[in-house]
Amino acid sequence: GKGEVLVHVAASPVNPSDLMFLRGMYVRKKLPVVPGFECSGEVMARGGGGGLLARYLVGKRVSCGAPMDGDGTWAEYMVTPAALCIPLLKPTDTEQAASLIVNPFTAWALLDGAVRGGARAVAQTAAASALGRMMVRLAARRRVPLVNVVRRAEQVELLESEGAEHV
């Protein structure tokens, strides 16, 4: 469709939000539906009259999100709005790029919301998760004190090796 691109999917992660979706506990979509909220791959084609962005993306490697009203990323090919695609630099690893959207933007939104709300510090559970580790790095860059809750001793060591102060 107009403004959409066809992506040949190279990699797509399984995030907790994906698992919640499969259990019917997150976003609800009309069934049948392909799950998956983010991926990386190559843009193979664009819809007619797709505009400058869609035209630019054809042939490019991208990280992209799935449209909230359609199929997801756990497929060989997917259609998504060009606006949900981020072109990748050549040295960017394809598998790492598959996780460029959900957790990084969630970490940014959580920390930004706390700071805007006047919080002088933030506490997080499941701090050794992918999202938690992103929060550790982002909070350090923004100089926001972060209290990290984990379940096992080796997770304490992991976070401390990544610069976490309060675990």
Describe the structure.
This protein has 167 residues and is α+β, with helices and mostly antiparallel strands. It is 33% helix and 22% strand. It has six helices and seven strands; from the N terminus they run βαβαβββααβαβα. It has helices at residues 16-22, 51-57, 94-97, 102-116, 130-142, 153-161; strands spanning 4-11, 38-46, 61-65, 77-81, 85-87, 122-124, 146-148. A five-stranded antiparallel β-sheet has the order 4-1-2-3-5. Helix 4 (102-116) packs across helix 5. The chain is elongated, with a radius of gyration of 18 Å. The mean pLDDT is 94.
If you compute it from the alpha carbons, what radius of gyration comes out, rounded to the nearest whole angstrom?
18 Å
Task: Give the H and E element order.
Answer: EHEHEEEHHEHEH
Proportion in β-strands: 15-25%
Number of strand segments: 7
Sheet with the most strands: spatial strand order: 4-1-2-3-5
Structural class: alpha+beta
Distance between the termini: 48 Å
User: Which descriptor suits the 3D outline?
Assistant: elongated
